Amino acid sequence: MKQTINTDLAPAPVGPYSPALKAGNLLFISGQIPLTSSGTMVEGDFEQETRQVLNNIDALLTASQLTFSDVVKINIFTTDLAQFDLINRVYAEFVSAPFPARAAVEVAALPKGARIEMEAIAYVK
């Protein structure tokens, strides 16, 4: 059984995909870029962009009655890996031990010209 998760507190998809999809005991959160819930891009300040991405993930977790403590895996995509320390600093405000498994990859481009995107997988108890 699959269930789409939506919330007005996270941006609507910019394509034919679910913002989050619950399948069995797992919640798959699609890649989130720094879009506000109204669809406006946060631009110019990498810290604010990173925080918006994590706030979007948090909104989808909350809509699923989960928290960051339920997240088991996060993938980070950025067009500027030189921002890695800043990403880690902001990210650390959202997660706690035991930390999710994680990957961070520099990419050539992201949707809508974003500089950062994250996707997450959470365990549903």
Description:
The chain has 125 residues and is α+β, with helices and mostly antiparallel strands. The chain has helices at 46-63, 84-91; strands spanning 2-5, 20-23, 26-32, 71-78, 101-106, 116-123.
Task: Please summarize what this structure is.
It is built from two helices and six strands, in the order βββαβαββ. The chain is an alpha+beta fold.
Give the SSE layout.
Blueprint: E1 2-5, E2 20-23, E3 26-32, H1 46-63, E4 71-78, H2 84-91, E5 101-106, E6 116-123
Parallel strand pairs: 4-5
Antiparallel strand pairs: 1-2, 2-3, 3-6, 4-6
Helix pairs in contact: 1-2
Within the largest sheet, what's the order of strands? 1-2-3-6-4-5
Query: What is the rounded Rg?
Result: 14 Å
Largest β-sheet summary = 6 strands, mixed
How does the overall form come out from the CA principal axes? globular
By DSSP (H or I, 4+ residues per run), the number of helices equals 2
Structural class: alpha+beta
The helix fraction, in percent, is: 10-25%
**Order of SSEs, N→C?**
EEEHEHEE
Give the N-to-C terminal Cα separation.
16 Å
Q: pLDDT below 50 for ≥5 consecutive residues: which ranges? A: none
Mean pLDDT: 97
Tally of DSSP β-strands: 6
- Bin the strand percentage: 25-35%
